[in-house]
Amino acid sequence: MSGREPRPPEQQVEASGPGSVGIGTAGRVLLLSLVGPEWEERAERVQRWSGWNWPQFFLVLLLDAVALSLAPDGPVRQIAWVYAAMAIALVLSFCRVAGLFRPRDEGDARGRRTLPPLVSLGCVVLASLAIVGMNHYAEHGEAEVTGRTEITGAASAADGGRLTVTVENTPHRNHLRLSLVLTDAVPGAQSCVPATTYDAELAGSTDVRVEGVRSGETFSLPLGGVRGAVRVDVVLHTDPGCRLGTAVADAVLHD
Amino acid sequence: MGETVTRTTAGRGAERHRAGHRMRRRAVVAAALAALLATSCASDEHDGRFLGTREIDVGIHKDLPGMSLLENYTYSGFDNDLFLDLEEWLEGEEGVQVTRNADVPSAARIAKLQSGDADLIIASFSITPDRMKEIDFVGPYLTTVQGFLVDADSRIRTHADLAGKRVCTWDGTTSRVALEAELEDTVSVGGTDAAECVRKLRDGQADAVSTDQVLLYGFAQLEPGENGLRVVPGLTVGAPQHYGIGVAKGHREDCGRLAEWLKGYVGSPEWQANFREAQPLLVRENPDWISRHKPEDELIDAHSCVDKPKV
């Protein structure tokens, strides 16, 4: 019944090297006095936020940044899945940093232990796919060009009036999807829009033509290898005496 | 045992009685609901109200020969014929009383509807996007174009002949807007109404009166001959004018029913007969009058009961 009782595990200290005994003991005593016996559990939590969990996160972050820099100007809906992939990759890799995929105890299944590296691999693959996707849509996706479109003679045109829609600095695509909005130029004295249609054709190519288009209706013209500025000639058909304004509602280049 | 059987039978009888009572109660509730539903459906269709009232006040003009003229206590004209057909439908099918208010100046048509002084306006009322923001239209029931009325001996035949000439239009019409937009070198002479403009033309204070041709032909057929008035053939300005029935906003369901009725009216022989009777001079001078003046169903759908023209 004599002799000292063994210290509880959290108070046992082992250290080696010159001067390390005193320092180790002092450090542990200090920690115990400051944060109590549960300090090791807290330290373990902090450990999850460090070490080898961070490089995979920074890699995914870098890949996402590259994908973002390649994002085209086109409609967001076409690249929505790319943004989704980027977001999922980033969130999952951060979850690994936070230790959400870490085995809870030694008895955890083997599959559970292999989950963190698999998650990291998946995140890298997803972020890489995002780069490929962005690159693809930058080359072949829909390009929103409404802001680069001009109409000559749009203020007020009568029956038979000719307008030219010009799209400047266009990325190379095979088709132009266009929608024009017609408005009554004298809204206090006429209501001509419902009875008005227009024909549109690619400038210099009478083969590429659509007829009888109404205000707000969308049509698509094949561009046939046109590079640089795209010009579309428009002819209005309305009742005699009507005057109409024209504006571009939507202009999109696509393959 | 026997007691048990009796009690059980009695219990079943009581249950059956309670079940029967519940079923009867459910049947009564169901019948009441069905009756309520039927009543509410019926009230949607024929509750004696249209545009929220049992007495429809229709505003019309009284000074436009060929369209709506009150003379010797008798109405005549195409708008008046439309009113009579509409009155028959409203009183017969919708079960409302219809009265005619023949004191609606052109400039007050929108205000009359908005203030509730009139429930409907049938007064050569051109449908425009600007007006559609303030009131609803049902129509068009007639399409016309703006022309020029001159003395029979006038030399005005072309737009160039109008340069420097005094042209009379009156307040609250689209005619003045179109004239100022397209023929800036004419001298605008104002009038309070059509009759005043025609009086100014006869008195030499104006060289021409400009408004919709169906109105001008109405005046011309009142004063034919060498010393009378004539509509300059082929001389027009501005866009086609589509006449609609004005309705205050907020009654889209009734408005839609009225639009369906109007489509039937415009497509019927009645429309042609009324036009022929009201505008004999126009019909005589314009053999293609039906294609010029009769609107298609698509045009009626595009303008009826909407805040802006549908495409």
From TrEMBL, chain A:
UniProt region (Disordered), positions on chain: 1-21
TM region(s), chain numbering: 78-97, 118-138
Keywords: Membrane, Transmembrane, Transmembrane helix
Name of protein: Integral membrane protein
From TrEMBL, chain B:
GO terms under biological process: amino acid transport
SUPFAM superfamilies found in the cross-reference section: Periplasmic binding protein-like II
Superkingdom of the organism of origin: Bacteria
Disordered as annotated region, ranges: 1-20
UniProt key word Glycosyltransferase: no
Pfam families in the cross-refs: SBP_bac_3
Keyword tags: Signal, Transport
Cross-referenced Gene3D superfamilies: Periplasmic binding protein-like II
Positions of transmembrane segments: none
CC annotations in GO: extracellular region; outer membrane-bounded periplasmic space
PANTHER family with a match to the protein in the record: ABC TRANSPORTER GLUTAMINE-BINDING PROTEIN GLNH, AMINO ACID ABC TRANSPORTER PERMEASE
UniProt record similarity statement: Belongs to the bacterial solute-binding protein 3 family.
Protein name (record): Solute-binding protein family 3/N-terminal domain-containing protein
Taxonomic lineage of the native organism: Bacteria, Bacillati, Actinomycetota, Actinomycetes, Kitasatosporales
